[in-house]
Amino acid sequence: MPASTKPxxxxxxxxxxxxxxxxxxxxxxxxxxxxxVSQGQLSRYEQGNSEIGAAVxxxxxxxxxxxxxxxLTGRDKP
Length: 78
Prior knowledge:
This protein has helices at residues 11-22, 28-35, 39-47, 54-64, 68-73. The protein has 78 residues and is mainly α. The chain has one domain (9-73): lambda repressor-like DNA-binding domains (434 Repressor (Amino-terminal Domain)). Helix 1 (11-22) packs across helix 3 and helix 2 packs across helix 3.
């Protein structure tokens, strides 16, 4: 795929979906521990200030039941 047509990832939107998965029951420290990241790193993810690596995306997908496609784009492939 040429660079000009490469889909851009909206990391702020990814952060909103991450926050949605965390829900109101878990605080950042608890959820960060489950994901194996620091609370500060989770905060950067949720704010869209840091890209989420593949290992964390995989853990998120497995624990939430969501697809990596949904985590990154907000859409699931049919």
